[in-house]
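Subject — a protein and its fold
Encoding — discrete vocabulary of local shapes:
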Amino acid sequence: MSRAFPPQASVVERGEGARLTAPAASRNAQALGDLLAEVAPARGRALELASGTGQHVADWAARFPGLFWQPTEPDAERRASIDAWTDGLENVAPAIALDAVRPGWAADHAGQDLVVLVNLLHLISAPETETLIAEAARALAPAGRFVIYGPFLRAGELTSEGDARFDATLRAQDPEIGYKDDFDVMDLMQGAGLEMVLVVEMPANNLALVAERPAI
């Protein structure tokens, strides 16, 4: 992913060894795990896009041992952090350098029972969002599910002062990025051949969108 993210977008702290810690990941880990407990398959292949520090996938791998996780991350330092966080977990593969906004990546990652994306859509452009969703849909196995979590516009509106400030900061640094509209993203998911399963209000004014590839 060639886009340089604004510094406010991904605050990390150095931990033990190669581990990086993102305060946001620490805060939302429990809520995301609880969500996956409701919507994820019990067994199968799971792909996390833009895995960041690795805190999430480490938590999920321990909590859902029937899923075999493939974390992905373009940044080499963060891939090292992911591998440090997941060291010793037998159901996690080493992190790979997948660029989620590159057209065509799904061909190498087909057959996923679960694809998860956390806190990325507001940091990429609308065309990149469309590409990412289309590729994720292609990567799913029949009955596989795609979970997107993050901050959104709600029917075109920002619904808190904090969201308004953050969105304005993002757009000031790069006018191509910023919060995506929830209905636009659901339209993209459905346009990619997925069926909406659930829309869940999450803590800190975030939203989770869950869609499924129809079974054959």
